Amino acid sequence: MFEFVQNNKVFIQVVLGAVALTFVGFGVGSYEAASDDPYLAKVGSAKIYKRDLDRALEGQPTDPASRQAALENLIRQELLLSDAHDRGVTVSPEQLRKVIASIPAFQDNGKFSPERYREFLQNRYPSPEAFEAQVKRDIVLQSQLTGIAGTEFVAGTVVNRLAGLLGEGREVRSLLLKPADFAAEVKTDDAALKAFYDANLKRFRVPERVKLDYVLLSQDALAQGLKPSDAELQKYYEEHKAEFSNEQRRASHILLTVAKDAKPEQKAKIKAEAEALLKDVRANPARFAELAKAKSQDPGSAANGGDLGFFGHGMMVKPFDDAVFRMKPGQISEVIETEFGYHIIKLDEVKAQDFAEVKAAIAEKLQRQQAGSLFRSQADKLTELAYQQGDSLKALQEQLKLQPQHSDWLSRGKPAADPLLNSPKVLEAAFSEDVLKKKHNSEPVDIGNSRLLVVRVAEHQPERQQTMDEVREVIKAELVAKEGAKLAEKKGQALLAELKAGKGEGKAWSEAKTLLRRDPAGLPIADARAVFAAQAGKLPAFAGAKRDNGEYALYRIDKVIPAPTASEAERGQLSAILGEMNANAQLSSYLDTLRQKYSVTMGKQGLSDAQ
Question: pTM to 2 decimals?
Answer without folding.
Answer: 0.46
